[in-house]
Amino acid sequence: MRIFTIFLCSLFALEALAYENTWTSSDTTQSDQSKVMSDAEMDALDARLARLDSEHLYFAQARIPQADSVATLPMTDSVFKYYMAELDARTPFEMEYNEVVEQYMKRYLRPGSSRMSRMLAHGQYYFPMFEEYLAKYNMPLELKYLAIVESALNPKAKSGAGATGLWQFMYSTGKAYGLNVNSYVDDRNDPLKSTEAACKYMLRLYDMFEDWNLVLAAYNSGPGNVNKAIRQSGGKTSYWEIRPFLPRETSAYVPLFIAATYAFEYAPKYGLVPAEIPVYYIETDTVRITKQIHYKQIEEELGIEPSLLEFLNPQYRYNTVPVVTGQQYYLTLPANTAMTFRMRKDTLYSIATEYFEERKSEVPDLSQMNEKTTHRVKSGETLGHIAGKYGVRVSEIKRWNGLSSDMIRIGQRLVVYPRRI
What is the span of the domain harbouring residue 139? Predict the structure, then answer.
């Protein structure tokens, strides 16, 4: 079962995590009022996020355009209620407006937010892609806003528990939906593949619950926790009725989604505009790679900016696109660059071959991640010893197990995803 954790680099997921930490009791029936964060706690989160912002959002140095000098909507109850009712009327989601939702809405809609401007810019690229797949599977288009809560639209987002990508897939769930991971490629970071996988997973959840709000809750905490909450509530099937019985982080999840949907739908009315981005989804094309190639050849021979190439292709580790039997890999490029690539591919592949020959000893072996195993720490073992045994990195073991240091103890159980050649 897929259990999603909150991605720490996402503004709104971080708020949900701190929101969980404000609970002083394990009583899952406490009132919504006790679930509202204080201003000091919210400000502390914003300060932490400001440090992470430039590291984890692309186009961080892009000029933030100023909003037109026109009157913007006030952030008042009457305005929120009016537009929330309008939004509720045109979506299958239960768009309830309450104090918890309002708190998150005001954080999204802060005047002059550079973070919001950058996420709006990412949305200009990703939302048409998301809508394409959501329409393919006849799903509500508002589900595109779920990626804001999951990853802040960062295609390389990683949680402390190992969930990654725009849609924050754990390894096992991603593999169940066709997302493979090896030492060169992580399909969970592939915007196209992961979006289709997320659609298929949410459709499965909808078949189970037949309610999109419950689908959101199950996407976050797993269907088992939603079924348990339904039982504990006496058979209620509305998200707001079962909310007190859901895991603590999930009780923030749907309010965050509602707030994000409202904020992105009405951002211009509040004077928020997107930063500039160098390319839009409709202006890109894909090319199939038939020989191993490094980003260096694309950048130098075709004149594409490294940051843009990485943004368009976040699934490739070591900036290398491999060739693997039984797999097909593609590069996403600006359409004109893709055309030039096709015309010059023989030259590019020849240069790439020479590049890899010169660096043969530096190039990592291609290895495939296996299913997870549990390792029990023995006397004298270190993380380095364990990493070497399973063919993984120390940093990966620490990430999979939420370790903040290299200290481990005898008898400790560690989750490991071994690699095979």
Answer: 11-270
Q: Which of 150, 196, 283, 354 is catalytic?
A: 150
Amino acid 333: pLDDT:
97
pLDDT value, residue 273: 87
Q: What's the pTM value of the predicted model, to 2 decimals?
A: 0.77
Give a three-class secondary structure readout of the chain. CCCCCCCCCCHHHHHHHHHHHCCCCCCCCCCHHHHCCCHHHHHHHHHHHHHHHHHHCCCCCCCCCCCCCCCCCCCCHHHHHHHHHHHHHCCCCCCCCCHHHHHHHHHHCCCCCHHHHHHHHHHHHHHHHHHHHHHHCCCCHHHHHHHHHHHCCCCCCECCCCCECCCCECHHHHHHCCCCEECCEEHHHCHHHHHHHHHHHHHHHHHHHCCHHHHHHHHHHCHHHHHHHHHHCCCCCCHHHHHHHCCCCHHHHHHHHHHHHHHHHHHHHHCCCCCCCCCCHHHEEEEECCCCEEHHHHHHHHCCCHHHHHHHCCCEHHHEECCCCCCCCEEEEEHHHHHHHHHHHHHHHHHHHHHHHHCHHHCCCCCEECCCEEEECCCCCCHHHHHHHHCCCHHHHHHHCCCCCCCCCCCCEEEECCEEC
Domain assignment present for residue 234? The answer is yes
| 57 lies in the same domain as 169 | yes
Catalytic residue check, 150: yes
